[in-house]
Amino acid sequence: MTETQVQQWVEMFGSLGYIVAFLLPFIEAFLPVLPIIVFVIVNVNAYGWFIGTLLAWLGTVAGSFIVFLCFRRFTHTKYMKKIQRRKAVQRLIHFIDRKGVIPIFILMCFPFTPSALVNIVASLSHIKARAYLIVLLVSKFIMIGLVGWLGKDITSLFSSPLRLATVASVIIVVWIIGRKLEQHFMHASKE
Q: Which residue spans traverse the membrane (predicted)?
């Protein structure tokens, strides 16, 4: 996304841009196929690192927590009971109940973790809503802040091969670490 495209984005939405900048990450919590990384980069380039990060962070935390609360509310429905009976889900819930919020915190710090899945499984566990909200606030700030920092000047990525290589390397390393942690925490066979 070029600087001109970002300026057109801001001009197109005008004062509603702040609402759109909040709503896109908010909606991503419900529709995980949407690209949270793109929304954060657009926000940061449109409104600056602080405001852009703040809007994306508030949107994604609000959306994730609402998903958590909705699934927590419907834990006792027939459909949710069916999901809970799956062996992999039972292992994961048991693992979270035993290990607490630290594995969730670590997973949520990485932008490539399927946060919708984590929200749903956390809602099925015995984690208190307040503790989960605190985990979301801190971990999502780390994740959004990192993505915002990496994408804050997207135009310089194309003019500076060294910066592009650095950002690409950081993204690849974060992705690899996130996948390893996800495999460890989400697919632990003996937990």
A: 12-41, 47-71, 101-125, 131-150, 162-178
d(CA 190, CA 99): 13
User: How far is residue 25's CA from residue 123's CA, in Å, rounded to a whole number?
Assistant: 20
In whole angstroms, give the CA distance from residue 80 to residue 90.
12
Q: How far apart are CA 42 and CA 62, in angstroms?
A: 19
Q: What is the pLDDT of residue 190?
A: 45
Over range 69-79, report the average pLDDT: 85
Q: Where are the domains of the chain?
A: 3-186
- Average pLDDT value over all residues in the chain: 79
Neighbouring C-beta atoms of residue 173, cutoff 10 Å: 10
99 or 9, which is more confident: 99
Question: Any idea how long the chain is?
Answer: 191
- As a whole number of angstroms, the distance between CA 133 and CA 129 comes to 6
CB-count exposure of residue 93 (10 Å: 0-12, 13-18, 19+): buried
In tens, the pLDDT along 159-171 reads 777 777 777 787 7
CA distance 105 to 87: 23
- CA atoms within 13 Å, Cβ hemisphere of 102: 5
